[in-house]
Amino acid sequence: MSKIKVLLVDDEEDYVKALADRMDLRDLDSRVALSGEEALLALNTAPPDVMVLDLRMPGMQGMEVLEKVRKEHPHIQVIILTGRGGEKDEKEARRLGAYEYLQKPADTGTLVDTIRGAWKRSVQVAKEVIKESKETFEGSMAAAALAEAGMADEAQDLIQKPDPPAEDTSSPGSIKVLLVDDEEDYVRTMAERMEMREMGSDVALSGEAALAMVEEDQPDVMVLDLRMPGIGGMEVLEKVKAEYPNLQVIILTGHGSDKEEETARRLGAFDYLRKPVDITNLMESIRRAGLARLDG
């Protein structure tokens, strides 16, 4: 397997070059960009698998770089590594699709582990596109091999996007969805992105509001955060499955653990996803949950 290609983006030249040396010692293939503009140029010449990105830089700021990367190169995973960010910055970065948000000085082992996790996510995204491809079996196998090698761009060059499926009674537009999250900007942005995919959704900003809306509107699928003030997501899940067993609940959290996933599934969660989530993955999970609701 080829080395993971990492682009380190930071205007502090001594720091970022020392970091690159440490990454190379850990068997990663790292390159350096000293500005946001330089980073975007690098994406067109030698795209990385993972970008490690500072927020505060002269010229184009890290948040703008993140937004452009996630829009134009969705398989490239972006890790924020900053020394001056706050909670507001972290929320915005995660809303824009950052894979992880770390503070300087970062422990080398933690950073390398995070990069490896981000790379696995990059390969997974490429594989999901391949799985939906209309190419021949041979072409798909070749693309899958490229994705396994971390060459997501080359894999995508071999494949085509499938035509949208014919609408039927199980299409996303026919499923009533309730999004539950106390991060208002995040959840309303998610609702807008779903609306662009022709799936309408309601929003609840607390567990209490969610339970009231379930009783009143009876949605088919609930997408539920775990960490909220007041009634937490796990309690909401337990109450909903006890009173409305056919309502399918998808956990979507940025702070979960394997133990919490086990608990959520034991309580009846249909799926357990982690932020930042790929919108296509979320839509597919909702579609499957909607079918399960109909079958129930």
Task: For this entry, give a set of tags.
single chain; 296 residues; alpha/beta; Rossmann fold; 2 domains; 5-stranded parallel beta sheet; 12 helices; 10 strands; elongated
Structure, briefly:
This protein has 296 residues and is an alpha/beta fold. The protein is 50% helix and 16% strand. The longest helix has 24 residues, at 108-131.
* DSSP summary: helix tally: 12
Please report which band the strand proportion falls in: under 5%, 5-15%, 15-25%, 25-35%, 35-45% or over 45%.
Answer: 15-25%
What low-confidence regions span 5 or more consecutive residues with pLDDT below 50? 133-138, 160-172
Helix content: 40-55%
Instruction: Please count the beta strands (DSSP E, at least 2 residues each).
Output: 10
Largest sheet: 5 strands, parallel
The Rg value, from CA coordinates, equals: 20 Å
**Order of helix and strand elements from N to C terminus:** EHEHEHEHEHHHEHEHEHEHEH
Q: So, CATH architecture of the largest domain?
A: 3-Layer(aba) Sandwich
Number of domains: 2
CATH fold name of the largest domain: Rossmann fold
- Mean of pLDDT: 83
Instruction: Provide the CATH top-level class of the largest domain.
Output: Alpha Beta
Broad shape: elongated
Q: Going across the major beta sheet, what is the strand order? A: 2-1-3-4-5
CATH superfamily of the largest domain: Response regulator
Kindly report how far apart the N and C termini lie. 44 Å
